[in-house]
Amino acid sequence: MANAASGMAVHDDCKLKFMDLKAKRTFRFIIYKIEEKQKQVMVEKLGEPAETYDDFAACLPADECRYAVFDFDFMTAENVPKSRIFFIAWSPDTARVRSKMIYASSKDRFKRELDGIQIELQATDPTEVGLDVIRSRAN
Fold first, then answer.
1. The model scores a pTM over 0.85
2. CATH match for 9-138 among 3.10.320.10, 3.40.50.300, 3.40.20.10, 3.40.228.10
3. Maximum CA pair distance of the chain?
4. By CB atoms within 10 Å of each CB, which of 35, 53, 84, 127 scores lowest?
5. CB-based contact 80:44 (threshold 8 Å)
6. Which of these, 50, 52, 56, lies nearest to 88 by C-alpha position?
7. What gap in Å lies between CA 136 and CA 99, rounded to an integer?
8. Cα–Cα distance between 2 and 50 in angstroms, integer?
C-alpha cells in the first residue's frame, strides 16, 4: 500500500529482512533506499553480523538520504549484554531538497512497517550518528 503523504510503497523485502535482523540476527544492519522511479522503499545493503558500526557508517552516502536499521550490542553498567535496534533517518544537508522532502514525508509510515524499532535517530551529518551518540541513546 502506498504512503498517502509521499506515494511511496514499501517492498516486501524491507519487512522480511528486518524480521531476520530482529529475530534471527542474520544481519548487523540494513540500509534502505527510496527508488523514486518505482515509487517504493527497497533494501540497498545488508550488513553481515560480523560487520562493525564503522562499516555501517561508511555505507551512508555523503550526499543522499537513506533509512537505516542498526542492531547495536552493548554491555550495561551491571555487565549484562543487551541489544537495541536503532532506526536512523539519514538526511545530509548536501542531499537534494526533493529527496529530503520525500524521505521526510515517507518516514513515519515506513517506520511503522518495521515492528520492533526501539530507538529513532534523525541525522544530517556523521557526528549525529557517531558511535558515542549511539552508545548514549542505547542506555
1. yes
2. 3.40.20.10
3. 49
4. 127
5. no
6. 56
7. 29
8. 34
C-alpha cell at 18: 528486518
Cβ pair 69, 15 in contact under 8 A: no
In angstroms, the CA 104 to CA 135 distance is 25
Asked if 5 and 109 count as a contact pair (C-beta separation under 8 A), the reply is: yes
> In DSSP terms, which residues pair with 59 in a beta bridge?
none
Radius of gyration of the chain (CA): 15
Digit-coded pLDDT (tens) for 88-97: 999 999 999 9
* DSSP labels, 42-55: EEEEEE-TT--HHH
Cβ(84)–Cβ(28) below 8 Å: no
Residue written as grid cell 529527496? 99
Q: How confident is the model at residue 121 (pLDDT cuts 50, 70, 90)?
A: very high
